[in-house]
Amino acid sequence: MSKSNKGDASMAKLRSIGVFCGSRLGERESYQDAAEAVGRAIARAGARLVYGGGDVGLMGVAASSAAAERGQVLGIIPGFLIAREGQLEGVDIRIVETMSERKVQLIDESDAFIILPGGTGTLEEVFDVISRQQLDLHDKPVAFLNVDGFWDPLVALIRHTVEQGFTPPSLAAHIALEADAERAVRDIMATLDKAAT
């Protein structure tokens, strides 16, 4: 019986958490601290971190932290960006042709998403994920790590679009604001486990 249980465990699906965040470090040390904590938490949870493939900014910090914990990491990056963003050594890297292709694969390869502070590229990824949810193309959990209130303006904007009748109120059910990286990962893993039963 124990042999059967071991086999079942080995066949369990590896969870993958997409991390969207800046290719810069930002102005506050707390952003980098959060990226490190997210990488560690994902690895310690036994999940794979999926990210944009570069070795710079918060995304490089998160991926490096996961790799340092012996976690699995998949980076997806357009070939033309390697000269600009580098390429993290010692992790799985998939080179694609375009930014659009990278975004599609980042979303497809992820079972859930954690959003750290970032700029326009991060916002593009966020709104693509949210739009797909509204169109019922996926039902993947999304957690914003709200470091020092970074995402408060975005939440206010989304609420405004709801109040003005452009966004369904149900959108809020798919978005969680988290203050702690370990709790964010733990909640995501619990949600994924519940959905699988």
The number of helical segments is: 8
Terminal residue distance = 21 Å
Major sheet: 7 strands, parallel
Helix content: 40-55%
Strand order within the widest sheet?
4-3-2-1-5-6-7
Q: Which value, in Å, is the CA radius of gyration?
A: 17 Å
Order of H and E elements: HEHEHEHEHEHEHEH
Q: Beta-strand level of the residues, as a percent range?
A: 15-25%
Shape: globular
Strand segment count: 7
| Integer average pLDDT | 90
Structural class: alpha/beta
List keywords for this structure.
about 200 residues, alpha/beta, seven-stranded parallel beta sheet, 8 helices, about 50% helix
Give structural notes.
- By secondary structure, the protein is α/β, with parallel strands linked by helices.
- Helix content is 48%, strand content 17%.
- The chain has eight helices and seven strands.
- The protein has helices spanning 2-10, 29-44, 57-68, 82-85, 99-109, 120-134, 152-163, 181-196, and strands at 16-20, 48-51, 72-78, 92-96, 112-115, 142-145, 175-178.
- A seven-stranded parallel beta sheet has the order 4-3-2-1-5-6-7, with helices on both faces.
- Strand 6 (142-145), helix 7 (152-163) and strand 7 (175-178) form a beta-alpha-beta unit.
- Helix 2 packs parallel to helix 3 (57-68) and helix 2 (29-44) runs parallel beside helix 8 (181-196).
- The longest helix has 16 residues, at 29-44.
- The protein is globular, with a radius of gyration of 17 Å.
- Mean pLDDT is 90; it is low at 1-11.
List the helices and strands and how they pair.
Elements: H1 2-10, E1 16-20, H2 29-44, E2 48-51, H3 57-68, E3 72-78, H4 82-85, E4 92-96, H5 99-109, E5 112-115, H6 120-134, E6 142-145, H7 152-163, E7 175-178, H8 181-196
Parallel strand pairs: 1-2, 1-5, 2-3, 3-4, 5-6, 6-7
Helix pairs in contact: 2-3, 2-8
